[in-house]
Amino acid sequence: MPSNETPPIVRRTDYTPPSFLIDSVSLEFDLAPEQTTVRNTIRVRRNPEAVREGSLELVGEKLTFISAVADGAPADVVVGEGSLTVKDVPDSVELTLTGVCAPSANTTMMGLYVSRGNFFTQCEAEGFRRITWFLDRPDVMSTYTVTLRADKVAYPVLLSNGNLVDQGELADGRHYAKWEDPFRKPAYLFALVAGKLEALEERVRTSSGAEKLLQVWVEPNDLNKTRHAMDSLIQSIRWDETRFGLELDLDRFMIVAVSDFNMGAMENKGLNIFNTKFILANAETASDVDYANIQAIVGHEYFHNWTGNRVTCRDWFQLSLKEGLTVFRDQEFTAAMMGGDENAAARAIKRIEDVRVLRQMQFGEDSGPMAHPIRPESYAEISNFYTATVYRKGAEVVRMYQTLLGRDGFRKGMDLYFQRHDGSAATCDDFRAAMADANGRDFSQFERWYSQAGTPRVTVTTRYDAAAQRYSVTLTQSYGHASATARPTQMGPLHIPFAIGLLGPLGVDMRLRLEGESAARETTRVLELTETQQTFTFVDVTAKPLPSLLRNFSAPVIVEYDYSVDELAVLLAHDSDPFNRWEAGQCLATRELLSLAARAAASQHLEANDALISSYRRVLTDATLSPGFRELMLVLPTETYLAELMTDADPAAVHAARQFLRKQLATALKEEWLATYEDNLTPGAYEPTPNASGRRGLKNLSLSYLAELDDPADAVRLASAQYRGANNMTDRSAALVALLNASASAGLDFGEHALDDFYGRFEGDPLVVDKWFAFQAMQRGTSQRPTVEIVRALMSHPAFNIRNPNRVRALIFSFCGANPAQFHAADGSGYAFWAEQVVALDALNPQVAARLARMLERWRAYMPSLREPMRKALTAVAEQVKSRDVVEIIHKALA
Fold first, then answer.
1. Tens of pLDDT along 716-766?
2. CA-to-CA distance for 132 and 130, rounded, in angstroms?
3. What are phi and psi of 638, to 5 degrees?
4. Main-chain dihedrals φ then ψ at residue 397, nearest 5 degrees
5. For the chain, what is the radius of gyration of the CA atoms?
6. Which of 301, 323, 396, 592 is catalytic?
7. Residue 311 lies in a domain
8. 211 carries an active-site annotation
9. S-S: 371 plus which of 3, 485, 534, 604, CB 3.0-4.6 Å?
C-alpha cells in the first residue's frame, strides 16, 4: 500500500459469521531457522448459520506455497498476495496445506520467529497467518494437535499448547514432540517454543485435588531468576480458585521467557510466552517495581485462561471483553496480595497507582485523534487498538459492575457468564447481559460505556439547608471539551456509579440517609447517576458537611467541584477514604504547579505556597500512615499529566514549575527528609514485601528530594554510600538516579563514575543494561549537552540493538515518552529524532514503530511554537512509512 494512501477500514457493523468452521487442526513443523516447513491438516465444514460460499478463502502472509490436498487428492487452489483460495469446497472436507516460512528473517516478531537461536511465536492478533494459511479470526475455534521436529542438539526442548502425548528420537540427530490441546481455541492462542531452555518446576494440587505440573522455562543462565515468577503463578492459581471458583484445567501450565518480544506477555493456552522483563528477577537485578510488575502480569496472563481462552472474543472489536476484564482481575489480585480484602489503606495503594496510569495515559487518549470507545467501531490495523482505553478504561467499566452490584453480585454475574459462554466466542453485550440477568438489573443504559468515547465530566453543586437539616447534591454529566473524534459516538447520558461521603465539622464521617429512606446507613453511598442532571438529598444532616466525592474513584470520570484550599487541606488530613485523601493532596499540588507554570511561561517570579509545604510536612511526619502510602502522597503530579491540563501545553514551563516546587520542598523540609531517610532504612536480606517495598520507596523519595538542593552534599554522601553498599537493585538504581539529578541541580558531575560502574557490573544482564540506557535517556540534560545528543550517542553503543524491542523502549521510548522537557525542546531536535526512529522501525517492526508514532498524535494540544515543528515531523514520517500500523496513526494525527 503506498504510504500516502489511507488504509482500508474494518467496521464493527460489517461483522458476519464465518462461512466455514474448522473443527480440528493438525500441525507438523520441521523447524529450521531459514526455512521451516509447516504441514497443516484441517477438518473444515460449512457454518450452517452463515451465508453459503462456494470457495474457501484463507489468509496467509510471507509464506511460500508447496502443495494443497483435499480429501487425499490435489486441491484446486489459487495462491494470491496474502491469501489462498480453495475452489468448489464441499460441505465437509479434510484439507492439507504445506508451506514454508522464514523465521530468522522475521523481524516483526509476529508469527514464528527466532530470538537468540531459539524459536518462538506470537499470534495475537493476526500472527498465525504468518505460519500457515488459515481462517485467522477469533470466532473460528478448533482443537489442535501439534508435532514439532527439530535438531536435538540445537533445540532440545520442544513445547506447544496443551498436554505432551508423545516424544522420541528421529534419524539424522533429530527428535520430535507431539502435543494435544483438548480445548477449542482460536488461532491467536496457538504457540510453540523450541530451543535450549531449562525449567523451574513445581507440582501443586488444585482445590478439587488434581495434581498439576507448573514450569517456568528460561535460558539456562537465568534459572536463578525464576522463583518469584513461580510464586506469582501459584498465588494466581490459588486466588482464582478462591475468588471466582476457577481451576487450572490442563495437566500442566508453562511459562516461557524470551528477550525479543513486542508485548509484555501472551496468554497462549497453557503455554504463556513472556517478555523476560516480566519474568526474571532477583535482588541484584530487579527493582521493587519489577517484582510488582511480574506478579501482576503473571497473574494477568494466567487469569486469561478463563477470561480470554475458555471464553474468547467473537471479533477484535470485542477485545476489551477479555482485556478489560482481565486487567480488572489482575488489579484485584494485586490489591489482595498487598493487603487482603480488609486492609483498605493497603489496597488503596494499588488503586492509586492504577488511577495515576489511567489519567496519564488514557485520559489523554480520550481527547486525541485516536479517541475510541472501549469497544471500537472501526480500525485499519487491529494492533493499534491494544490501547489504554481498551485495557485500562475497560477495566474501570468492569469495576463499575462490582461497584453497582457488590462483590457477591459481581461473582454471580461471572458465574452466569461462564455457564452461558464457556467454550465459545462471546461479545461485550454477552458479558453485560450476564451481569444484568444474574442480579435482576436493567443494564441497557450501561451499554453506552462500550460505545461512547471521551472522558465524562461530572459537575457537582451542593446546597445546605441548616433549618431543615437537608443537604442536596446535584450531579451534572457531560463531556466538556471532548475531542471531535469522540463526539459522533456520544448518544446520551451514561449510567455512572458515583460514591460519596460527607465529613462533619471535625472531619469525621457522617452516617448517610437519603430522602425517602427510613434510617441512616453506611458512611459511603453509591449514587446512581443516570440522567444528564440529578439531585440527591441527604436528610438529618446536623451541620454543614464537606463532601468527599467519587470515593475510591468509583467511575472513570473527571469531577468538577470548586473546593477551597482549606477544604482540600481538611480532606487531606481527615478523609477516611484513602484514595480521596491522596486525591486532595494531588489537587492542592496540581493547582500550585499550574499556577507556577503560568508564571514561569510569563517569566514572572516564582514563589511557593507555604500552606502546601506545611501540608507536605504533616504527611511526611505522620507515622500513622504507612511508608508506601506516604510515598504516594508526596510524589508530585507528573509533567505529562500537568501538560494535559493546560489549554496549550507548555512542557518547558511545566518542567520549570515542577523543578522549582521540588527544590522548595527539599529546602523547607530538609531535616524531615533526612530523618525520614534514616527511619526507613531496610537492613538485612532483601524482601520484596509490601512493607519493605514501601519503606524503600519512601526512603528513596526522600533521597530524590535531597538531590534537588542547591548544595546537594548530603544527597551525594547518602547516595554514594547507598550505591556502594546496596544489596538490591531498588536501592542501587535509586542512588544512581539521585547522583545524576544532583549533578543536574549543582552543575557538577557526581554520576558519571557511578554510570560506568553500573554498566561494568551488569553488562552481561540485558534487562539491567536496559535500565542503564533508560536512566540516561530520562536525565535532564543541559544547554551544553541536551539529552537528545546523549541518546544519539548511545545508539552507537555496542550494547544497543534497534531490532530488540526492550532496548528500543529503554532508550528511544524513555526519551520521547518519559522526558517531556527534553523531548519537546524548542529547537525541534527531539521531533527530528523521533521522525528518524519511527521511519527506521517501520521497516523492521511496525508494531513497535506505531507505538512510538503515537507520541506526537496530540500535537495540536501544544503551544503554537511547538505545533509547527511537530506537524513537520509528522508530515515527514507520513511521506516515508509503509506499514498499515504506522500509516493509520499518522493519518489520524494529521487529519
1. 999 999 999 999 999 999 999 999 999 876 667 788 899 999 999 999 999
2. 6
3. -75, 160
4. -65, -40
5. 28
6. 301
7. no
8. no
9. 485
